[in-house]
Amino acid sequence: MFTIRIFMMKYLSSLIQTFRFYFYRLKGFKNIEQGVILESRLNLDKVYPAGIHILNGSLIASGVTILCHEHIKRNPSYFFLPATTETYIGKNCFIGINATILPGVRIGDSVIIGASSVVTKDIPSNSIAVGNPAKILSKKVILDNNAIII
What integer pLDDT is reported at residue 67 of this predicted model? Predict the structure, then answer.
């Protein structure tokens, strides 16, 4: 009975992830690769959805907010519009529950962002960052293709 349940959970989760990928793709998030795991209740920037780049193998936990526009800064060509920028999350990253990624941040490959952290600056590859604002705790992390520490 236990193996049937695990099989069903694995099968259903892959279907749900495929559905979420195409759901976000239809909403304009065209720079999220298909191998990304997207959990529920994400707050992805709707002002400039093409500005969010998430590479393969990353896991974005529930409640994460990713922004790529700022209302305080304005577009010099159209002053009534907010300034937009690109926000990048590299390969094999883990973004913890309720984390916030601010506009223009670049997160390298194999990075772990702690739960409820606020990322205000770029995070280099193979790092762990936590806190508000997020500070780097370690620069020697190695993650596999499923964003799990090796």
Answer: 95
